[in-house]
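User: Hello, can you help with two protein structures?

Assistant: Certainly.
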Amino acid sequence: MNTEQTPRSSSRSHVPSSIGIHSVLYHPEPGQVDRFLQGVRAAVAVARRCWPDLSLTLQIGDCSSDPTLGSDAVDGLRKSLTCSGLSSFTYQPFGRNMGSAGGHNALLKESDADAILIVNPDSYMSPDTVVELLSPFADAEVGITEARQLPIEHPKQFDVRDGTTSWASTACALIRHDLLREIGGFDAETFFLYCDDVDLSWRARLAGYRVVHRPSACVFHDKRLNGEGILLPSSAEVYYSAEAALLMAWKYSRPDLVEKWSGELLEGGNTEHRRAVEEFRRRQADLSLPEPLDPEAKVATFVDYNYAQHRFGVGG
């Protein structure tokens, strides 16, 4: 992988003529898939009106223990979705939980689209999402564009002039397929659930691409909140976010943060935090951690437990 931030040549770029929309299920709540597909249909319809020659496909992978969709449902969706403007629809049950990174890598192997739009299944895209995410790709240096999340906007900073930001959340992000091939897709060996998108963004930036936040592209991303508007993470989210923080610090050449955060999580954390430290240390002892990158900190940004400066605070 190229570790220098080399500008892209404008002659190498064009706005993608085909987009593969990818989503990975894991035991979705009742009605979640139907709501997700409603957003997809609307976004596809608007995109096709703006670019009649744009080809859009939909691939859904399923990490649930049993398939969420039966064969009759898949056949019905294939007919209705293609009538809505999609070129094709495929549904792939994996039969096991491969994690977010693993599930998306499996879908990428089956796609030949110019760009991949990754969308969480608990999200609902606004009708102009595809149009707004696609527009910045006229710039050869743009490799990833991300949508603004509602009702809880992610607080990381971005340049108000051109949208440049530290990393893109794959709750809803459009990515050049050539970029994904160049950097090898998601690091599924390291990240199971969290920070696979931060890592992907940083490796894209090391390869010379820009990551762009696009506030005009909006996606509703369902979140659990209490009565005061504070996020309520599940125990799995607490565990994997802590584990991912240690893995990010290791992978991006910050052993000082690994030591500091391990101590803080053990001393002041909860059971999930302590489990995350134990798992990290097991992987370290087994020599199964990734080779560290970016020793000169060209792209890696660590602010407290965050991976960018924040514009405002969230949480309790």
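That covers the first. Now for the second protein you mentioned:
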Amino acid sequence: MIGIDVGGANLKIVDESGVHIHYCPLWKESPLAEIIAEYKEAGADNAAVVMSGELADGFFDKNEGIAFIVNAVKKSFPNAIFYGMDGKFHTEACRELAAANWLASVAYLKQQYPNGMMLDIGSTTADIVPFADFEKLIGMTDTLRLQAGYLVYTGMLRTPVATLASEAVIDGKVTPFSTEYFACSGDANYVLGYIGDEEYSAATPDGKEVSREACLRRLARTVCADLEEIGEEGALAIAKAFCSAQQKLVCDAVAKAKAASNADTILVGGIGSPTFAPLVGGIDLTAATGIHADALPAYAVLQLAKEQE
């Protein structure tokens, strides 16, 4: 059996050989079924699945997205099981499957850390969830999680720079940002060393390459400039303004959830774990448990499925 986490941008699969991450945006002509079929051909006999990609705007609504994902999986694995927001596995498309990937992670981690909490920060979002009141989490939609502070919609790759920061000091002058999608969090985190080539797996805002110079050029456009106009120092000031705002937003949300729940341990997963674990006084999930931090829901749903066999 393999574990599958179908996100809106990335498809994450865990099998006996490890973690496999495929950039697979669902808002375009998606090769989801074709990628999954490769694992069937490699010898996998079944799949346990979680998802959040049903929210992709290529679908009319969540029901259409859920059906698309379920059908894509069942082309290769007709007996696949899907973990839902009710904390149960299902065999057919149903509303409960929407955005249940974070709940699978919590259901698995709470077995070892009953009074812990999770910060899972990936390409797009940050899940911030205390474990102690698990029953209260059942059925909690993404909208309810936003309201509770358990979902912070920012990530290490896909957040537009101008959504979190509005200005930077360049050449001694406060310089407002344009609100065009010129640069993303991937650009800022890349030039500051928080992620590398392997982690920057999402499409860039301009469709061009991932390199230090290309990221700096995208960042410079945030203030309507070419890189030659403001120099590397100016572009780095933009990156620092963004990352400072992003880190404060996430860390404040973690502190609030921890204080309210009296959690005794913070487990940090996702590609942002090396950056955020020391900032929140947490434990990098990979180092602590051996769980692949960048594919936690796929790993968790696989373990939950094995437990019920």
